[in-house]
Amino acid sequence: VSFFGINLASRSLQADQRALEVTGQNITNADVPGYSRQEALLVPVLGPGAMVPELAGSAAAPGGGVDVAQVLRTHAAWLDTAAAQLTAQSGQAGIADRSAQQLQSLLAEPTDAGLSATADRFLSAFGNLSSHPEDPAARDGVLRAAQELTGRLQQLSQGLESLRQNMVTQASDNMSQVNDLAKQVAALNGQIGQAQAAGAAPNELIDQRDQLLQQLTERTGAMVSGQEGGELVVSIGGIHVIQGTQAEALSLAPGSPASVVVAGTGQAVTAPGGQLGAQLNWANTIVPGYQSRLSAFRDGLAAAVNSLHQSGRDATGAAGVPFFVADAAGNLSVSPALVADSRKVVAGDGTAGNGSVALAIANLGSAASTVLSPYRRMVADIGRLASESHSQSQQADASRQQIQAMQSSESGVNLDEELAQMVSLQHAYSASARLLSTYDQMLTTLIQQTGQ
Amino acid sequence: MLSSIATLVSRQRAAILARDTVGLDGTYEALLALLAKLDLLVNGARGGRSGGGSESAGELQSLAREVKQQIAVNRGLLRSGMAIADHLMAAAGEAASSQALFTGVG
Fold first, then answer.
1. N or C: which end of chain A has fewer CB within 10 A?
2. Which of A66, A421, A426 is nearest residue B17 as measured by Cβ atoms?
3. Interface predicted TM-score of the whole assembly (ipTM), two decimals
4. Which of A10, A430, A436 to mutate to probe the B interface, most B CBs <10 Å?
């Protein structure tokens, strides 16, 4: 075999081996999440025959064999964009769903422990007092029910604040994860750039980076550009947090409302999406909204009860004092004067057997009254929110799974397909090898015959 | 005729390397069709006829050696490809929990 023949065989064997290595890589990584199937792009190499103008391009021109020009990564960019949007939506919807479920659990409606039942018991106690204005046990019953009501109101108020603070903590933890992911992506950008500059195809690194970008998108709704060549840029809320090998650290600005800033410059990151967007939305808008509504309900109830209570006279004949008092944070408690002396609980106008004031307070729970309706609307709204959030989360998850299945069929490894390809290749190799063996024997005979 | 065989062997090499089963099957059929003619040529040479018209025995021998070398390259490629593919098929078969298929080397 001539030098050219040896060179051709060597190069061709290397190309063949590389192509089969790529198949092996696909088989080995068939179950690895995020792995994109690879294909060896084989290109013909010009041999000396191509230099002869009469032969160039013709079947008779002895070629230089083939080389693996590139190991291509089977990947659909449009699916990445769609998957990124759905991943961000799914992250956001997941947080909203879990938070709405927590909120609903906190209300515990409609159960005996819920505020509605507690308020009903409080108003019923006044109803009982209106029927038995002289009965000390009825007054004690009012005080017990009132303390239960203020306790429940305070518990709800603390629960909402705890939920809000929990959202801020989650956003802060999320931020640490986001910063970590951004650093890893920037480092990978450097490695990918170096490998590409050296002419290599760093497909595994690109797969790894795609996985990290997916997590980043789920957490922040990040927008990614430049994946298909050029410098990779990741933006969150309009700020470039990753640009090539540079990553900006983000942090939560101190104070309320919770906001995200670039740690180095203090520049505000407006409207992040994904889980972070949902966490900030719940910490800054949704939970505070319900806190305001609960406060408004509590203050309205206290004002109505106090107004009626002060309009009558107690069992000692003195003018009624406010039934509820509020601390600086607005938390209610039963007036200490009433707790100390239950005779100060007003039942009516002070005349014997009169329970008109207690009846008026009991009637605050009637359908015609608007005192309890703000809370009832709030319970209904939270119920609707929980139901919608759950449905949206399920829908977002289903859509995400669907797009991931599409990505998998586009980029993933189908073992059956790889096997089928191998089997047909083996058949073709085997048949050709047997034929060449026959040819070789016949040519040997021919050489022997002509040499005699 | 030997030139035609050489051309087909060259095409076959490209098909082997591209793992192009259709191309391999095509060159197989074409080479199979020429096998009968080669047989005639070999028998003709045995009978003292070159079968190549104006070609001398020396030229025929030289051309046959060249084709034989080209065939040797292809056989090497096929052996290597089959050995690696056998290994991969075993791996794929194991991964897919299905029976692996093996083929012999021709």
1. C
2. A66
3. 0.79
4. A436
